[in-house]
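Here is the promised in-class demo. Please do not try to memorize the tokens; focus on the logic of going from shape to residues.
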């Protein structure tokens, strides 16, 4: 199939590349000339495991092209995907300025039977509004479908190639048939192609992310309760997870969820509810609990050091909002860094991928280390924010030798309290009894 992908951000680039990899002819369009030039040379603007190789392979095979010229890419395409950013506006609603400008730019070039597919996460009703806008701009009926993405950063290629389901919101059989053909090769026998109205498809994306966020905020609140009631959240998690109605996924306590999706989508859905006079009590609570949870290590560190915190050296392992990405958007680590700097601490940071992004934001106010052990030199404490694999089994003896005091605040429960007692660390984690 011939495809135009408008927007080469995270979603557009991963989707376009994966679609090229299954034999489609994909042209990725972006208004950013410099980005397109870099992509043509095989330079990928984001860190996503496996993406770089896939881009180069498909570009060399001639199935994946990059351009700033919307007209030619759209004119020859059967499917035109809109994958531009929809950031949060001040009031928490989605800002659709990039989307509307993309709609205007494609309108004059659409082939008569082309289908416009909305990949960007958009408020419910946006597909209908795009349908109306394209009709007004072109003077004819243009097919518009919704096709939300469920890609996890760090595992996006696998998620695309092995989806649990494909959701499309369609108005015509033509759009449904084209999308079914497009996604057929990815759907194993037990994984459904779910066709529904555009409104239901738009809602599905928000509701999925809101429920996953709810699970995280719920387990975080229970972890905080466990600590105070002298329970262990890990035991409780196992105790509930074996109930098949509950399961184990997305019930790991931590320092709160971050990233470009959960915080934004929970707020946007709450905003939509308010617009139709429904008080979104659950969604507001999920957001509030998460904001508070981002300070959970701050509370532990300030209680431990008390008045003696200013001037201390604090090491931080893990800056990205989760492992296998360099993304620091809404990352809990940033909340901790801001607090420690405000308190006059010396902050030494390490992350396997996100250092450059943090450097852009904090410059010389932090000390950056490419090796985790180097970050511990002279530290009064270590705070762990992201569960990168390489932090799971460190050399504890070397850690103790490097640190000024053997104190760990573990926001991801990477170690066992008993193990830390044996290694003679002071060890504070989430929802478990502290080792002092
Ligand atoms: C998410 C959705 O999973 C994806 O379907 C959607 O399309 C985009 O948003 P992503 O933002 O890449 O993907 O991250 P995800 O792996 O879902 O993790 C989100 C956050 O939740 C991270 O900050 C992570 O640390 C946190 N989390 C996750 C927990 O704190 N505990 C858990 O048990 C699981």
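The designed amino acids, position by position:
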């Amino acid at each position: 199939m011939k495809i135009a992908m408008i927007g080469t951000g995270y979603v557009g680039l991963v989707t376009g590349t994966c679609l090229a990899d299954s034999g489609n002819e994909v042209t990725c369009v972006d208004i950013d000339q410099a980005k397109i030039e870099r992509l043509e040379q095989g330079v990928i603007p984001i860190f996503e495991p496996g993406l770089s190789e896939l881009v180069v392979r498909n570009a060399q095979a001639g199935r994946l092209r990059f351009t700033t010229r919307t007209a030619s890419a759209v004119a020859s395409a059967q499917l035109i995907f809109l994958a531009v950013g929809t950031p949060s506006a001040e009031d928490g609603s989605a800002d659709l300025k990039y989307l509307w400008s993309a709609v205007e730019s494609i309108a004059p070039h659409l082939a008569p039977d082309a289908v416009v597919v909305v990949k960007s996460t958009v408020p419910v009703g946006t597909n209908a509004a795009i349908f109306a806008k394209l009709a007004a701009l072109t003077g004819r009926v243009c097919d518009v479908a919704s096709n939300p993405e469920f890609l996890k950063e760090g595992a996006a290629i696998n998620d695309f190639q092995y989806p649990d389901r494909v959701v499309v919101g369609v108005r015509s059989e033509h759009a449904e048939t084209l999308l079914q053909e497009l996604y057929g090769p990815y759907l194993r026998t037990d994984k459904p192609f779910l066709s529904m109205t555009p409104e239901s498809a738009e809602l599905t994306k928000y509701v999925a992310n809101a429920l996953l966020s709810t699970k995280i905020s719920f387990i975080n609140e229970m972890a905080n309760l466990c600590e105070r009631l002298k329970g262990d959240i890990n035991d409780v998690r196992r105790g509930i997870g074996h109930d098949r109605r509950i399961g184990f996924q997305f019930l790991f306590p931590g320092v709160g969820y971050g990233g470009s999706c959960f915080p934004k989508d929970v707020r946007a859905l709450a905003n939509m509810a308010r617009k139709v006079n429904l008080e979104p009590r659950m969604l507001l609570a999920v957001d509030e609990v998460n904001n508070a949870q981002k300070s959970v290590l701050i509370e532990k560190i300030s209680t431990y050091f008390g008045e003696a915190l200013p001037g201390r050296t604090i090491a931080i392992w893990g800056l990205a909002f989760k492992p296998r990405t360099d993304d620091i958007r809404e990352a809990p680590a940033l909340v901790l860094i801001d607090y420690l700097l405000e308190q006059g601490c010396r902050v030494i940071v390490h992350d396997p991928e996100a250092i450059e992004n943090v450097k852009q934001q904090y410059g010389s106010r932090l000390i950056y280390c490419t090796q985790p052990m180097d970050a511990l030199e002279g530290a009064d404490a270590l705070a762990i924010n992201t569960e990168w694999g390489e932090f799971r089994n460190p050399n504890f003896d070397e850690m103790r030798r490097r640190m000024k005091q053997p104190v760990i605040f573990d926001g991801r429960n990477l170690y066992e309290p008993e193990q830390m007692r044996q290694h003679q660390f002071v060890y504070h984690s989430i929802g478990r009894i502290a080792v002092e």
